[in-house]
Amino acid sequence: MTVGDGRAFGRRLLLRGLGVGLALPLLESLTPRGARAEPPTPIRRVLYYYVPNGFNMNVWADAVATMAGGKLSSLPGLPGFLAPLAGGDGKKDLREKLLVVSGLDNAPANYRASDDDANGAHFQQTASFLSCRHVDRTPFGAGQSIDQSIATSLGYITPHRSLQLGLHGSANGACAAGWPCAYLGFISWADATTPLAQLNAPGEVFETLFSSSAGGVSPADLARRKARKLRVLDVVHADAKSLHGKLGQADRYKLEQYLTAVDEAEVKAQAMGAAAACEVDPLGAVPVSYPERLDLMADLMTLAFKCDLTRVISFMRHSGGASFGKAYDFVLHDGKPLTEQKHTYSHWNAPLASEVGTLEERKAAYLAKLAAINTWEIERLAYLLRRLDDVVEPTGGTLLDNSVVLFGSELGEPDHHLANDLPLVLAGSCGGTIATDRHLAFNGGAMKNDTFADLHLGLAQRLGVTFAPPMGGGPLFGEDGTKPLPGLDG
Question: What pLDDT score does 280 carry?
């Protein structure tokens, strides 16, 4: 393929591997000069926001019934644990920028009778959240996650193809009953056997984003640096190509790998300077409390999008199953801090004997406390969404308008460990490609035609990524993603 000034660019810029086909957006320096006067178009971005251990589905069912039909903004507020998204107390009302989705299953995440262990639910469902593939204890493997399919397709149009963020330490090796710890700790997978670790400390995230940027460097000096690097890469590329006809087949393959790396470095060089043009204050002291660190991560994700350092982010509020490892004492219920972690409250059929009252009273108390945690999780989501919505973009709209945030959990019904009827919240219209201010319901159940994997395909489509069926046919993504989810555009 020849672009721009006539230089040849090959398979690196088409990226037709892994069932994904996409012609990358033309970079300005590689487009014909006469075509550079096009008006700017909004940059589209996607953020996957994962929370562990599901939701109080009784509250969710009531909320779904309340939202049926009409606009969310026409309701007095939002029902159940979604209420924080409706604003109040001087906070911006987000309802017009929301699409609440119900009735989608991630069936590949559920236990199967053929599995070699019936006790791996949290492992299976967490690993499947962004891959929609079934996993068993052995052999090890999940499948490329949707964020990495998108990131691979977009390539290095930004300094970071994707960011994997979290607030927990992730371990490899074996966990309970020999299940791979990676299944609990990672939702982003480069391929079936390569999970991608998160950056878990706000200071580490800030350094990764901005320590190598050109902060303090003048635009003219930055332009000189970029031009110098591109000239060097051009020379290296030309010298390497001149060897091609003189090499044997094995060496030609090695040369192609080398040239791919050179082309990738060139595209990364084109992305230089995003952070330099973005006003960023020093990070300062990192707070100690978990809620404050969570909000700081939201600030950093906003900066990463604002400065166009990436277009794809996955965020794990915590690992699957464990849920926090200590009491959620920052969440109040009936005016009192909670004394257990979320995982405990998510299994209300086995409440602790230390809880007062009868068994049924203890179950009801657990469900109420789980709903309190869900409300707190939505409050923290609302903080992130308002931060995104505060940033006005030069192309029009806000960061939130031009992005889509998918919020959800690996579980719907946590006590039964089912990834069915997942409560999902989408925020942002992804540059006007998603119709918001509404509730979108699907049929669910064994006869359903629409899946969680279809939702992943629908969001990828809005970032310009399409999936080709594998050789011999089969799903486009995961095990049951057959088409982009219908209804996203209204």
Answer: 84
Contact 51, 422 (CB under 8 A): no
Own/partner long-range contacts of 468-474 (Cβ < 8 Å, ≥24 apart): 468/19, 468/20, 468/21, 469/19, 470/19
SS3 406: strand
In angstroms, the CA 341 to CA 329 distance is 9
CB neighbour list of residue 470: distance below 8 Å, 6 or more residues apart: 19
Q: Beta partners for 27?
A: none
Check residue 86 and give its pLDDT: 97
Helix, strand and coil in the chain, % to nearest 5: 35, 15, 50
Q: What's the average model confidence in pLDDT over 45-59?
A: 97
Beta-ladder partners of 194: 191
Nearest to 310 by CA among 222, 382, 209: 209
CA-to-CA distance for 144 and 53, rounded, in angstroms? 22
pLDDT of 272-318, one tens digit each? Answer: 455 556 878 888 899 999 999 999 999 999 999 999 999 999 999 99
Q: Rounded CA gap, 69 and 67, in Å?
A: 6
> b/e for 326-337, b at 16 or more Cβ within 10 A?
eebeebebeeee
Helix axes 249-270 and 219-242, enclosed angle (nearest 10): 170
Instruction: Note the pLDDT tens digit of each residue in 236-253.
Output: 556 666 666 666 665 665
Would you tell me how many other CB atoms lie within 10 Å of the CB of residue 170?
18
Give ∠ CA 59-62-64 in degrees, rounded to 5. Answer: 110
What is the β-pairing status of strands 403-409 and 45-51?
parallel
CA pair distance 60, 73, nearest whole angstrom: 18
Pairing type for strands 163-166 and 312-316 reads: parallel
Q: Is the pLDDT score of 9 beyond 90?
A: no
pLDDT of residue 379: 98
pLDDT band at 270 (very low <50, low <70, confident <90, very high): low
CB 418 within 8 A of CB 412: yes
Residue 5's CB is within 10 A of a number of other CB atoms, namely: 10
- For 152, phi and psi rounded to 5 degrees? -60, -40
The pLDDT of residue 430 is above 60: yes
d(CA 100, CA 457): 17
Query: What's the one-letter identity of residue 417?
Result: H
Q: Which two tokens stand for residue 394?
A: 């030069």
- The C-alpha atoms of residue 236 and residue 261 are separated, in whole angstroms, by 11
DSSP type of residue 483: S
User: CB neighbours (10 Å) of residue 279?
Assistant: 9
Q: What is the pLDDT of residues 336-347, one digit of tens each?
A: 999 999 999 999
